[in-house]
Batch of 2 targets.
Target 1
Amino acid sequence: MALANPEKLKVVTTLSRRDVYFSLARVPRSSRVFLGCSDFKVYEADLAQPKPDFKEIGAHNSYVTGVALHGTTLLSCSYDGRVIWWDTEKKAQIRAVDAHQKWIRRIIISPDGKRAASVADDMVCKVWDVASGKMVYELRGHQVKTPHHFPSMLYASAFSADSKLLATGDKVGHIVLWDLASGKEVTTLEAPVMYTWDPVARRHSIGGIRSLAFSPDGTQLAVGGMGKVGNIDHLEGKTRVEVFDWQKGQQTHLFAGDKFNGLVNQLRFHPQGEWLLGAGGAGDGFLLFYDLKSKKTLRQEKAPMHIHDVALNEEGNTLYTAGHNKIVVFDLKG
Amino acid sequence: MRTLSFFSLALLTAWSPLASAADLLPADRPIEQVIDHYIEARLQQEKVVPAGQIDDANLIRRLTLDLNGRIPTAAEVQAFVRSTDPAKRAKLIDRLMASPAFVRHQATEFDTMLMAGTNASIRDYLLKAFANNRSWDRIFRELLLPDENDPQQQGASAFMKPRLTDLDKLTNDVSVAFFGVNVSCARCHDHPLVPDWKQDHFFGMKAFFNRTFDNGGFLGERGYGVLKFKTTKGVEKQAKMMFLTGKVIEAPASSEPSNEEQKKEKAALEEAKRKKKAPPAPSFSARAQLVKVALEPEQRDFFARALVNRLWLRLHGHGLVAPLDQMHSENAPSHPELLTWLARDTVAHGYDVRRLLRGLVMSKTYSRSSRWDGEVTPALNLFAVARVRPLTPMQMATSLRLATSDPASFAADRKPQEVEKKIEQLEGSASGFARLIEQPHEDFQISVSEALLFSNNDRVLREFLAEGGDRLLTRLKQARNPREVIDLAVRNVCSRDPRPEEIPVLVEYLSKRADRPTEAQRQLIWALLTSAEFRFNY
Amino acid sequence: MAAPRKTFCGSPDHALDRRGFLGAALATGGAFAADMTGLNVLTQAALAGELKKKQRRCILLWLAGGASQLETWDPKPGAATGGPFRAIQTSVPGVHISELMPRMARRLSRNTALVRSLNTRNGDHGGGARLMMRGRRDEANIRYPDLGAVLARELGQTESKVPDYVSFYFATEGRDFAPGAAGFLGSRYAPMELYKSMIPENIRKLDSISALDHKERADLRDFLTRQFERGRSSSTLASHNEAYQRVRGLMACDKLFDIEQEPAKMREHYGPTQFGEQALVARRLVEAGVPFVRVARAWWDSHGQNFETHQELVPELDHVMGALLDDLEQRGLLDSTLVITLAEFGRTPGINASLGRDHFASAWSMSLSGCGIKGGAVYGKTDASGNRVVEGEVGAAEVFATIYAALGINPQKNYYLGSRPIPLTDPGTKPIKEVLA
C-alpha cells in the first residue's frame, strides 16, 4: 500500500480557471470529479487528463456551494436555495427541490449512501432520503440571529463513518450533534473563538465554524474556522482547528495556527486515521496536517489558491482541491 | 449705490513692491519708532484719533501672553503696576524674552504655523533652534535641506516628510509659510486677476520639489527629472525652476538615466534604506537652488516681508498684508513703507526673529487699548485700536492652570527660578487640556462645544475648580470676607484689580450663597474663567 | 476708505449674483461675508422665500467604508462579477435591486431615486470620504465646509434652540477620515458629534451643581462678559458669547436624543440595532427642526468576505431605511426631509481570493429619497459587468448640486471668503434634473 506522507506533499496538476470553484465530489477509485462553480454551473472533469474537458452537467441560479455523490446520483446545492438531484450517467436532472429559504452552504451524503444533509442560512439542517428525494427531518438547533441581532449563518456539517451521527456548526460557534435515526439532538458543543464580533471599530462580524469532521472511529469531532480577528475587513485571523471528545463534551485538541491567516474550509481525516487534514485560505491558500496522537501540527503548507473543497482518494495519498480560480491535484505518496 | 465689479478693482490699486530706500526713514532708527511713525502718519492722513494706551495691568497681561504664552501671576502684575522705573516696560520685555518660556512659546507658535494641515510636529527641532536664537533664514534652510546626520538639526526633516505624498501641497505650503504667497490658484490656470501669478509660477515652484521623494523614511532627491504640465489651452509644457519673482534657474542638462544607471540608483537607495540613512544628495539639488535663490539680494524680499507680516499678524490680529498668504501686486499692504522698512531691517540684522519681535512689542502701536468708545470702529488696517485675539490652545490651557493655582506659589518672595520651574510644570500639565481647545484661525468662531465643555464637563471641574493644596479655591476658603475672596479671585484670574461696578454684583453673588461658601467661590472662579475677558488677549 | 482688496482666484463664473449675495447678507456675523454688507438687494419677497426654505431638512445615512453597489442598488446577477445574490423586481417597472433589499424594492417608486453612475475617481478612504462629505476636492488654501455645515447654515434658524448639525458615528473605524468640518463657515456650524453616548457630550448638568446655581452662574458669566464687551467688537468675540447663550437651549433638548421617549412599538419599528436606534433619534431631531443629521453606519470595507458582510449589513440598511422613510412619510415629514445614502466609494466588481471586494470609485451608486426627489427615478447606467459607467456619468459636484437643488438651495450660490466668491458647487455644475421632482 502506498503510504500517505504529508512530508512528500507536491503539486501534480494545476488548472487555472476564470471562476471560483466552491465544491468538489470525486467518483470513487477514479480521477473524475464533479465541481460546483461561481458561474452557477455544475461540471464534470477528469483531472487525470492534461487538459481536462469541463463538461456542464447543469445549472443553478447562484453559486454552487455543494456537490455530493452516491453511485450515479449527484446532489448539488446552491445559494439559490435549491437542491438538485442529477443522474450522472444520463447527465440529466432528476429533481430540483426548493429546499431552503436562504443560502444553502453545503450538502453531504452519509457514508452508507442513504441520507443527505443540507445546511443553510435559514439555520435549518434538512435530512433527505437520497433515493426518493423525500425530506426526512428538519433539524432546528441553531439561533436565527446572532447575539447582536444580525442574521446568523449555518456553514458546516459532517456525518460519522457509521452514518449514525450528524454534526452541524454555525457562525457563532455553536455545534449540534444529531442522532440520524431519530432526528433528535444528542449533544451540543461550543467553539466561540471561531466567531469574531467587533463591537467597537467596525460593528459587524466575521468567521464562523466552516468545517466539521468525525474521526474514523466516531469518538472525536474536529471543528475548523479561524481564530479571533483584529481587523475584520480581512480574513486575518489565524487558522484554527479544535477537536472535541463529544461524548465527554470536552475539547481535547487545539491547533491554533501560527503560519497562515484564513478560514479552515474543509477538514478530512486520513481514511486510516493517521492524520487530520485542514484546507482553506484567505488571500492565499493553505493545507494543514495534524497528528492527533501527538497533538502536533505536522505541516503547514502554502497552497496555490484559497481552497474551498477537497477530496482524498481511498489511500489518502492523492488530494483533489478546488478553489479560487484554480483546481489543483496534490500527491502525498511516501 | 455702489456697484462692485471684480474686474474694475484691478485698476484701483497699483503697488510697487519695492518702495525706494531713499524715501524711507533711516535704517538706524529703533524699530518701535519707525512703526509708530508710519502708523501715526496714516492715522493723521485718515483723520483718525487712535485709542489710548493700555494701563500697566493690561500691558503685562498682553506681553506675557504674547511672549511667554500665559497670563501673568498676580504677583507679577502687582510688581509691574507698582514699579515707578521709567524703563520698566523694556525691562519686562527683556525678562520675558530671556525666560525659557519664551523659547517654548515661540516653538509652539511656529510649529502650529509651519505644520498646519499635517499631523506631524517639528517642535523639538524648533525648541533647539529658538533656544540658540537661530536666524529665520537658517531655520528655512534647515527645514528645506535638512542634514539628517546633524544632531543640531534633529527633527527638521519632519517639515518635508509628511508632505511628500502631495507635492502640490508641499509647494503651496512652502510658498505660504516662507513667502506669504498662495500659488494654489495658479495650479489650474493663470491667476485671472493677479497678473503676478501664472501657471508657470506654480509649476516653477513645484519644479524645485519635483525631484524630492521619501526613501524609507528619509528624504531623497534625484539629480534629474522634469516636470510637465498642461496649460489651460491643453498645451503640454515643461516647467522651469522659477522663483516667485520670475527668476529662472537653469538646471544643468540632465537626461533620463539609462537602465544600467537606474539599477545602480535603485541599489544605492535600497542600501540607504537598509542602513537607515539618508540617500546621497545629488550633485545638483533643485531644493538647494530654491533656498539659494529665495535668499539672493534681488529675490529675498518675499522671504523677509512674509516673516514681518506673520509676526505682525500674530501680535495685532491683522496683517500689514491681509490675508497673510496674498502678498502680490494686487493686494497692497496697508503701510507699504513700513513693511519695506521692516523687511530691510530684518535682512540687515540677519533675520533675527527675537530682535524683530522685541521692536514690535516696544511700539506704542502694540500697546493701544482694544476698547473703542467712538461710534464707528476704524478699519482694522489702520491699527487705531487693538484687536481682541482669542487665546491659542496652549495659551488658554496654561493660563487656566495658572489662574486656578494658589497665588502663594508665585508670591513675590519666591525665588525666580522656583517660580519659573513651577510655571514650566503647569505648562506641561496643560497640554492635555489644550487638545480640547480649537486652534484659532482667520475668522475664527468659538464653538458651542467649547461652551458646553466648560459648562458641564467633569474634567473642567477636576482640573480647575477642585480643592487641593496648591489650588486657588483652597486659598479662597481662608479669606475672611467676600471682598477678600473677590480681590484674590479677580487678581488671579483676570490679572487686574476688581472694578467698582463689579464688586457689588460679586459680593451679592457670594452673600446669597453664604450657606455654601465653597460652592459659591467655585462658581465665581468659573464665571471669571469663562468670561470673554479671560478667553481673549485684549 | 481703505483700498479695496482683491485676492480671490475668480473667473466670470464667480461674478456676484443676487442669490449669492442674499446668503452672504444673512450670515450671522461670519466675517467671510463682511465685505459685501454695503449692498442692498435684500428684498422682502426674496427673504420670504429664504425663510420657507428653512423648514427643509436632511438625513444622511453614511455607509462608511464603502457599501457595495452590486449588493445594493446596482446588482449584476449572472455576471462573473455579480456575486451570488439575486436581483429582485422593484415597484418601478423594469428596475431591479439586490434581493437583500426587499423592503426598499417594494417602496422604491414612492419616494426614492437612484443614481447608478457615480465616478468619483478617489478610491482612498480619507480622500474619498472628504470628497463625498464636502462635494469637492481639498484645496490647499481653502477649508471647505461639509454638507452638514452648509445645510446647517442654509436651513438652520439663527436663534435655534436645537443643534443644527448632529452626527452619529459610534464605530471607531474611519471616523477620523472625514470628521464633521465647518471649514471656513466657522465653528458655529460645526457638528455636535456623538461618538459614544446617544446623549451628546456635556449636554447634561453635573450633579454637583444645582439647576439654579447653574443658571445664575451663567448669568454672572454673562454680566462679566457684557462689561468686557463694552467698546469691543469682533465676530470671534461675538461667537464666544453666542456659544454660551446657546448652552441652555441645547441642554433643554436632551430629551430629543432619548429614545426612551418613544413608544415601544415605534422602537420595534426601527429595530434593536444601534443603526436603527440612531435613525429613530435622527427622526426625532428633524421633527424638532434640526436641519441636518448624519447617521454613520460603519464599517463596510469588505476586503474579505464581502458577501457575508453584506448579508449582515444590507438587510439592516434595508430595514432601517425603509422604517425611517415610512415613519417620516406617516408624519408628513418626508416632503420636507431628504434622506440620502452615500459612502466614500463603492466596491470592485472583481471578487478577490478572500471572496471580498476592494475599493472602487469608478462606477457606483447612491440613493436620494423624499424632499424634492422624483420617486422611482433611476439615473445613469453601468456596463454589464459593473466596471464602468456607460450613461450619465456624474461626480461629487453633481451629487452635491442635486442635493442642494432638492432642498431648494441654489447650487451656484456664493459664499465669500474676504472678497473671493466661493460657489456652493464648482461653476458649471448641473444638478441631475432627472431625479428631481
Target 2
Amino acid sequence: MPEFAVPFHWRNFRKRYSLIGSRCPVCGRYFYPERHICPVCKRTVKIEEVMFSGKGKVFTYTVVRVPPEGFKIYAPYIVAIIELEEGAKITGQVVDCDPGEIKIGMPVEAVFRKIRSEHESGIVLYGTKFKPAK
Amino acid sequence: MMDFSKLKPARDVAIVGIGSTEFGEHWNKSLRELAGEAGSKALHDAKIDPEEIQLLVGGNMSGGMFVGQEHGAGLFADYLGINPKPSMRTEAACASGSVAARVGFMAVASGMYDVVAVGGAEKMTDVSGETATSVLAGAMDQENEAFHGLTFPGVYAFLANRHMHEYGTTREQIAMIPVKNHKNGSLNPIAHFKNKITVADVLGSALVSDPLRLLDCSPISDGAASIIMVPAEKAKDYSDNPIYIRASAQASDSLTVHDRRDITTLDATVWAAKEAYQRSGLTPKDINFAEVHDCFSINELIAYEDLGFAKKGEGGKLIESGDVEIGGRIPINTSGGLKAKGHPVGATGIAQLYELVEQLRGEAGKRQVDNARYGLAHNVGGSGATVVVHILSNER
C-alpha cells in the first residue's frame, strides 16, 4: 500500500478510537462501521449513530502466520470476527490470548491498543483490539 | 428476488476463439507480453485479424500495484492491433476477468457490437510475496479488515473455522480438494503446478492462517487468457464448433465479511447461480462439469453448496464421494482449478471459460469429461463481494 498523507488517518481517528456504529430505526439492526443506508431494509431513512459497549464473543477467528506489510513483527497474531452484544459484528485482533487458547464463543471485551507504525519515524496507528473478558 | 427467466438478451452470443498463456512464474514475460500472447492465440483460433475486432474488454486487478502500469486497456489495445477501436479495463479483484467477459457478452447480446475480444491478464511475480499479499488485501475492506492485519488466507480461514464449527466439516475433507485439483492439474499442459500431492502433504504443509495451510492456498501466478465473442447466428462463419453462452450472471454482497448474512455461505454465489439457472432454464442437476473458484480449498467446498451441487453443510460429503473427480457425476475444476492451474487474478475468470470451451469442444485431452454438454464457471471477487457465474454449452 502507498504511504498515505496525514488526513487519510486523521479523519478516521474518531472511528478508530471508539466503537461507533449505526442502528436502523426501521428494523432495529446494528451495524459496524457506520452506514448511510441499512443493507437489510434498504430504505431511505435517517440511520442513528450508536456507541457499542465493546463486549461480545468470538464468532470466528484465525491466527495470521504470514502477515502483510507492516505486521511482520506481530506475527503470529489472532484476528477474529466478534459478535458484539448489541448484535453487530466487527473484525479485530484478539490480544492477551495464546493462539492455542482462542475458541468460537469466547467472551471478549474491547481494548485500545497500538495497531502498527508506518515506519521508524512514521505515524503510529491506534485502534480497537479485543482481549478475553474476565 | 427478481425473476430473470423473463429477461431475454436481444440475441444469443457464441465463443469462436480462445487463447491462453501457460500459467506460472514467467520471469521472462511482462504484462503486455502475456496479454499479447493470449490475445494472438485467440485471434488465430478464431481465424480473424485484429482489425475485425470492434471492442476490447480486458480484466486486470492491479497492474498499477503489481507492475506500476495503470490504463492497461490502452496498452493491450495498442499491443494487440485493436486501435482505433475502443478498449476498456474491468476491475472486480479476482473476478475482473469474468466481469470483462460479461461486459463483452452484453455488448454482443445487445447488438451494439458484432466481434468482441475479451481477456484477462495479471503479472504478479515482479513483487515480493509480502507485497503481493498486501496488494491482494487491497480487495478487502481497507479500514475495517486490512487495517487490523487481516489477509486473504485469513478471511477464508474465518469461513473454514465457522464451517467446521457449524457443520462438522473436517480438516481432512477440506484437504481432499487441493489433492483432487493437483491431480487434474497434472493432466493440464498449461497448469502452474503439474505435481500430484496427498492429504498428508496438505496437512503437513506450513500453517498460513489457521486452519489453512500452504497447500490450501492458490499460488501467485503470471498469466493471461482471451476469448472472441460473436452473435450466435454468425458463429458458424468463424468456427466449426462454436460454444454458446447460455447464461451470464453476476451478484454483489457486502465487501466486509463480518456484515454477511451467513459467513458459511457466499450469498453472491447463491444469487448469481440462481440468476444463471433462471436465464438458462437449467438446474444444478443439468450441469455436467464446472470450474469453481478455489482460491482457498474451503471456498470450493462452500461453492459445491452455494451452486446447488450439494446440500448446505454437505460439501465435505461431496468431495469424499468422488463425484467431483474427472469420471464422476460432476467433475469440478478439471483444469486443476486456481490451486493447480494457477491464479493470475485478472486472468482467472477468462481462464475458467477457456477450460469450459476446451471441454465442450471435446479438446481437453486426458482431462476430457465424457458427453460434456453444459459447463458452469464460478468466479469470486475478493471474499465474495462480486461473484460471476457463466453457463456455456455446445448446443445453442
